[in-house]
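Structure in, sequence out. Go:
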């Protein structure tokens, strides 16, 4: 449920005030039109408490880096953050250590992305008889889109587009949804945040959107590459159906086993769909900025299928089945 669609939650609130929403909930970030201008404002929130419980410094960096990537996937440039820092009792040395290190990580990441902290709050003493909450510094970030009509969506927008993986996948399963869900284990070293690499990816996405080179862009985060690819294939919450994907990962990240390849949560990655006419321009831009790209396949797989070829086999699911699981998990859990 923590990875599944949150539509059940956000449909209980008005997400279309005065009809200014250009990109509605359900993607990486929402985009709002600024009335009387060409501008758009992108907004998102982010935090992974598992990472912070294992390494509060890397987790603090990761919360900001993930928010920046969410904003950049829409084509917007990150501008600034607010935060809501939730911790246990600071009178306990281990909690104060978490707080100090998380703030240090947030600070370093904000400097890397030029995103000042414009406000926020601190909430301490979040505890019960069983112990303190996991350190949860939630980052709220806004970004500016110079031309709102060039906003980029998170899901595949049509058939026969190229599917590109931007960034590098390493064996980083510590704190992952895969380990927690499949093995009921929460431990290990969480993914390292290379701020310079993350900044390059943000710059690449912003410039590619400004030049109208992308059909869609979606960050790779909780659940790893497998979940990101499936979300792109399924389409958005209000699309009647997804386009499917047909990708081949048999030559991607050759040093990784299948579990790490599909479910590693390495930072600074995004999956793009690109029209064939723009593929050379996107490749050239990525080379100029220093962002690795892997051409994995195409959208619009046969018969609406989500198909992934691996070194040791093939995954194939009907997109309709994926949509049923993804969009129905929370309603089923809540008894609707």
């Amino acid at each position: 449920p923590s990875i599944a669609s949150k539509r059940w939650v956000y449909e209980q609130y008005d997400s279309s005030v005065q009809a200014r929403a250009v990109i509605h909930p359900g993607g990486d970030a929402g985009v709002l039109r600024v009335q009387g201008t060409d501008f758009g404002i992108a907004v998102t929130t982010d935090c992974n408490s598992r990472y912070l419980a294992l390494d509060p410094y890397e987790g603090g960096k990761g919360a900001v880096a993930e928010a920046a990537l969410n904003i950049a996937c829409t084509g917007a440039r990150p501008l600034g953050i607010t935060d809501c820092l939730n911790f246990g009792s600071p009178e306990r040395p281990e909690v104060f250590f978490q707080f100090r290190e998380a703030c240090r990580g947030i600070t370093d990441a904000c400097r890397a992305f030029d995103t000042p902290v414009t406000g926020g709050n601190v909430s301490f003493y979040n505890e019960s008889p069983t112990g303190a909450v996991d350190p949860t510094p939630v980052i709220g970030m806004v970004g500016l889109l110079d031309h709102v009509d060039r906003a980029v969506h998170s899901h595949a927008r049509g058939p026969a587009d190229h599917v590109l993986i931007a960034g590098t996948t390493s064996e980083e399963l510590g704190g992952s949804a895969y380990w927690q869900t499949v093995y009921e284990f929460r431990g290990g070293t969480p993914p390292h945040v290379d701020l310079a690499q993350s900044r390059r990816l943000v710059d690449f996405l912003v410039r590619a959107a400004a030049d109208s080179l992308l059909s869609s862009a979606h960050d790779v985060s909780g659940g790893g590459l497998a979940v990101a690819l499936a979300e792109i294939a399924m389409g958005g919450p209000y699309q009647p159906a997804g386009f499917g994907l047909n990708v081949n990962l048999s030559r991607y990240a050759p040093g990784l086993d299948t579990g790490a390849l599909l479910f590693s949560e390495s930072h600074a990655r995004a999956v793009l769909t690109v029209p064939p006419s723009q593929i050379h321009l996107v490749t050239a831009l990525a080379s100029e900025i220093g962002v690795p790209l892997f051409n994995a396949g195409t959208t619009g797989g046969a018969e609406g299928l989500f198909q992934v070829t691996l070194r040791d086999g093939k995954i194939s699911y009907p997109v309709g089945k994926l949509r049923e699981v993804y969009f129905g998990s929370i309603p089923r859990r809540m008894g609707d």
